[in-house]
Design a protein that fits this description.
The chain is mainly beta. The chain has two helices and twelve strands. A hairpin with a 2-residue loop joins strand 2 and strand 3.
C-alpha cells in the first residue's frame, strides 16, 4: 500500500461550511491517538517513523499549505526508498501507511495540522531520517528551513538502512 489523498464532502452554507474528516465505512482505520501541531512558515517536521509500534496516519491541514513527504522504509517492498510528495491544503486528507517515514514542510505564515494515528506515541521507538538526505533528493521548496534540534541531527537514509530501521 502507498500513501494517497482522501477527498471528503464539504457542506457549505451562508455561515461557512461543515466538513467530514473521517468515515470508518470508507476507510478501515483504528484511530488510537489524535494530535495537532501549529507551525510557522518554513518549518519542516520530519522525516519521522517509529521502529516498533508503527503508526498509520491520516493527516489534514486545517489552516495553511504544506508539502507532505512520505518515504517507503519497508526493505521487503519493491518500492523501498521511493519518495511520495503531496501538496496539502484545507479540504484534503492524506493516508500514510505504517511502513513510511513521514515529513511535512509548511508554506504559510500560520499552519495547523491534525494527525490521526493508529498507534500511540512511544518516544523510545521514535526514529528519523535527515530532511535533506542526498540519496532521497527531496525538494521541499523551502529555502531556509526551520528545524528542531532533534530533526537537524537525524541520520541519513543510508545510515538508517545500516541500522535496518531499528
Amino acid at each position: 500500500m502507498k500513501p494517497f489523498i482522501i477527498e471528503t464532502k464539504i457542506y457549505p452554507d451562508q455561515r461557512g461550511f461543515f466538513k467530514e474528516l473521517f468515515l470508518r465505512k470508507k476507510l478501515k482505520f483504528d484511530c488510537k491517538f489524535t494530535a495537532m501541531s501549529f507551525s510557522k512558515k518554513n518549518v519542516i517536521r520530519g522525516l519521522h517513523y517509529q521502529s516498533k509500534k508503527k503508526q498509520t496516519k491520516i493527516l489534514s491541514v486545517l489552516k495553511g499549505r504544506a508539502i507532505d513527504v512520505c518515504v517507503n522504509i519497508n526493505q521487503k517492498s519493491k518500492n523501498f526508498g521511493k519518495v511520495y510528495k503531496f501538496l496539502l491544503k484545507p479540504g484534503l486528507l492524506l493516508f500514510v501507511p505504517k511502513d513510511f517515514a513521514h515529513g511535512i514542510g509548511f508554506y504559510d505564515k500560520e499552519n495547523i495540522l491534525l494527525y490521526h494515528l493508529s498507534e500511540y506515541r512511544f518516544p523510545q521507538y521514535e526514529r528519523g531520517i535527515i530532511f535533506n538526505d542526498k540519496t532521497l533528493k527531496i525538494n521541499w521548496k523551502i529555502k531556509k528551513p526551520i528545524l528542531s534540534k532533534r530533526d537537524s541531527l537525524m541520520p541519513t537514509f543510508k545510515e538508517s538502512i545500516k541500522k535496518k530501521f531499528k
